[in-house]
Design a protein that fits this description.
The relative contact order is 0.05. It is elongated and about 70 Å long. It is mainly alpha-helical. It has one domain.
Length: 92
């Protein structure tokens, strides 16, 4: 296993040592490895979320191109009409 030296300001060093002293981590290396794993997981989650978002947008665009979906302007106009007719109450 390769080693890497890092420098921390005193408050951060003390924080890491407190985490070790509390028994949450066996060493500073254990703490840093956990941080890196969490960061890797967060990046993977973000990439998955972006892929899902892209797929959802593509699906919506395909639906709209096929004549599906709802025209937002028309829907908002209709809601405005209903609010005026009902005195501000939206019908359920």
């Amino acid at each position: 296993m390769a080693s890497m030296n890092i420098s921390l300001p005193d408050p951060l060093r003390d924080y890491v040592q407190d985490r070790i002293d509390s028994g949450q981590y066996a060493s500073a290396s254990d703490y840093v490895r956990d941080l890196i794993r969490r960061d890797q997981g967060g990046i993977a989650d973000e990439e998955r979320w972006l892929r899902d978002l892209d797929a959802s947008i593509a699906e919506s665009l395909a639906e709209m191109a096929g004549g599906g979906g709802v025209d937002l302007d028309a829907t908002c106009d209709q809601i405005g009409v209903e609010l005026r007719v009902t005195g501000g109450r939206v019908r359920q």
